[in-house]
Amino acid sequence: MKLQNNLLNMLDIFIDTNRIQFFTNPVLPEYIKLISWLKEKGSLVLTNKLLTEYGGGCQHISTEENIMVLIDFLQQQEEDRINFITNSKLGEFKIKKKDFKNIRSKKSDIVHLKSVLISHRRLALTDDQNLTYDINNYPGYRGIAKSNPNDLPYE
Question: Which pLDDT score, from 0 to 100, does residue 68 have?
Answer without folding.
Answer: 86
